[in-house]
Design brief:
The protein is α+β, with helices and mostly antiparallel strands. It has eleven helices and four strands; from the N terminus they run H-H-H-H-H-H-H-H-H-E-H-E-E-H-E. It folds into two domains: 203 residues, no CATH class; 74 residues, 2-Layer Sandwich (Alpha-Beta Plaits), CATH 3.30.70.120. Helix content is 63%, strand content 11%. Strands 2-3-1-4 form a four-stranded antiparallel sheet. Helix 1 crosses helix 4, helix 2 packs parallel to helix 7 and helix 6 crosses helix 7. It starts with 5 loop residues before the first helix and ends in a 12-residue tail after the last strand.
Length: 297
């Protein structure tokens, strides 16, 4: 009888919960802030928001139909793992969008402007932040939101265009299309503002979650510093022999990577042990193994 891998089950459960949480936050941004104030942005959801403003065709249904078609096309070239996660994310997004719109619709059938009339700027910022946080949570699980991700992945597979550039071009075209359709400069401006804030929130979440600090320490007291790092933190140190090219004196070079919150402790530790040490501190994004992030294929 095969052994049950509880760790894999736990990781799958966490990913499942994270994708649902991310899609719920993303849908809240649209239903509570962007749609009631007639604001759009990039992405497939932004494109279907424009369709909703024109025809009142439900965004949730449009997202589900479009993703189903794209996933069928992408199944063979992109593989079942990518398609499987994207399919679930698309279903979750469609469900949460429908639920969010129902909750935000008043008795007259209009979406409620919970911030009050004329609060377009604040709605733009809040909606974009929620969009960025929601998508960021999904990305941290290694998942995909479907939509443009599928098209960009296909373009990247068959053409020499990067994934990010393909997404940027598609987002730009969606927002720019607001002008010939609505002849409304406001929608175009708010669309690009939303895209910038959304991208910033997404980057902040992903980078802060994966950001650690690397220290390179040139010191004449390597043993003392190594012992303190090992005893006072949960991290180890790599020691290498070095030589000053100008002085031709031997010196030890220590390298350690710690969590961002521990950087002040390491600096104080070095200053107390060897005030004459030469220290380089830099960000290390995406550190895996030995007390840091788990490597996920």
């Amino acid at each position: 009888m095969p052994k049950v891998n509880y760790r894999r089950i736990w990781e799958f459960t966490l990913d499942f919960l994270a994708i649902n949480l991310g899609m719920a936050i993303y849908a809240l941004g649209w239903a509570a802030f962007l749609l009631p104030y007639h604001i759009t942005t990039g992405g497939m959801t932004g494109m279907f928001a424009i369709l909703y403003y024109l025809t009142k065709f439900p965004i949730s249904a449009a997202v589900l139909i479009a993703n189903a078609i794209l996933l069928i096309i992408a199944f063979k070239p992109l593989g079942w793992k990518f398609v499987g996660k994207s399919a679930y994310a698309a279903i979750a997004l469609s469900s949460f969008l429908e639920l969010g719109q129902q909750m935000m619709t008043d008795e007259s059938g209009h979406l409620m402007q919970i911030l009050g009339e004329g609060q377009d700027s604040m709605a733009c910022v809040l909606g974009a932040i929620l969009n960025g946080l929601g998508i960021g949570i999904v990305f941290l699980t290694g998942g995909s939101t479907g939509g443009w991700d599928i098209i960009a992945a296909l373009v990247n597979k068959y053409r020499n265009i990067s994934f990010g550039r393909a997404l940027l071009i598609l987002d730009f075209l969606v927002i720019a299309s607001c002008w010939p359709i609505f002849h409304d400069v406001r929608m175009v401006v708010f669309g690009y503002v939303t895209l910038v804030v959304y991208t910033y929130a997404l980057d902040m979440l992903i980078n802060s979650a994966r950001q650690d600090i690397q220290f390179i320490i040139f010191t004449n007291k390597p043993d003392e510093i190594c012992q303190r790092i090992i005893s006072e933190t949960c991290h180890s140190v790599t020691s290498m022999n070095g030589e000053g090219y100008y002085s031709h004196q031997d010196i030890k070079v220590l390298i350690t990577i710690v969590h961002k919150r521990e950087s002040v402790k390491i600096l104080r530790l070095i200053q107390e042990t060897d005030p004459a040490a030469f220290v380089s501190q830099s960000r290390a994004e995406g550190v895996y193994g030995n007390g840091f992030n788990v490597i996920k294929p």
